[in-house]
Each structure stands twice: as C-alpha cells, then as structure tokens.
TrEMBL record:
One of its GO terms (molecular function) is hydrolase activity. This is HAD-IA family hydrolase. CDD domains: HAD_sEH-N_like (cd02603). Keywords: Hydrolase.
Amino acid sequence: MIAGMTDETWVLFDYGGVISRDQPDADRAALERAAGVDPEAFWAAYWNHRRPFDDGSYTTADYWRAIAADLETRWDHARIELLADLDVRSWLHLDAGTTEIIRALAARDRPMALLSNAPRNIAAALADLPELTPLRQLYFSCDLRLAKPDPDIYHRVLDGLDAPAERVVFIDDRPENLTAAAAVGIRSIHFTTSAELATDLARELDDSPAA
C-alpha cells in the first residue's frame, strides 16, 4: 500500500481527528444528557477549559468543576466521574484506514511516534490501546506540560526522537498545529482522509533523504 520506505524518517501522528474519529454524535449526546445543561453552553465551556486540561494544569476534577462554574451549576463526585468516563470513551473511536496505515508502516519497520494534546485520563487510555503499540514513543501534552501549537512542544519531541526536523513528517488535522511544526522545520501533512494520507506519505517518504 505504501511503497519506497527505506529511509529513517520518523512519522509523527496526531491522535484526535487522525488516528481517532471526531467524537460521534451519540457520545456527544450522552455527555450533554449527563451534564444536564444547555448543550451549546456546555460545549463552549468544554472547549474553553480544554487547553489547561490538556497541558496538565488542571486535574480531571478541576476541569469539570471549571466547566460547572461557567455553567453556574454544581456536579457531585459521581457526576464528575460519569462525565469524565463518557469523555474518555468519546475519543476512543479509531479510524480504520489510519490504523491500517500504521500497521503497514510497522511491517516495514518505519519509526513512528505520537504527539497528542491529551489530558492525563485520556493519555492513560490511549497508552493501553493495542493499535498504538507500533508507535515507538508516545508524547502527550499533559506530560510535556505544553500543548500544540506551542513551538516548544515540537522542539521537545525532536529532542526525544533524537532526530533533525527534516527527518520528521508530522500528520495533524489542524492547520495551526501544522503551521507551528513547519516553522521549526518539520515536514507536515494535513490529514483529511486516510486514503489521502496514504498517498501523501508515499510521496513524502519517497522524497526523504537517504538514511
């Protein structure tokens, strides 16, 4: 499926919107029911507080209490646990095409890693996914205490991979994350579909400098 991969260029995957699909409508509806508030206001607060949750500044309880405060409501411990569990599960729906690409790359011994904006509870769930086992290193924003598109997060990952920027191909669905990666010299692919990704990867890796 993906030919010509003989160099040691790393493939660095984003998770949400690349390896996983976006939160399905049914999961979003379950979160809305559990929250018991206006859905539009819920999602505004959900995303408003996501960055400090992703970069480890908030604990899980901190995050949901901050949302509740925005919504002028209170959730007890059991409700927060339910919301947190539903949230984690909503991010575990994988894109079959992307996971097939990961398997194909692994079969050719392509070095791969993950860079995801993820809070600690989601990072823990992702680390247990068998589909991510072929990825040699997993970088989560909560561990790095940085979140994309902060330029420093890309430098930290390059240091961890011990690879120059031109030997890394980063795949993300968000243009702002790709722009920040490109600014430090990382080669980037804008994810739209797994079929397009297979084509883009073959081109990028075929054009890689010899290892």
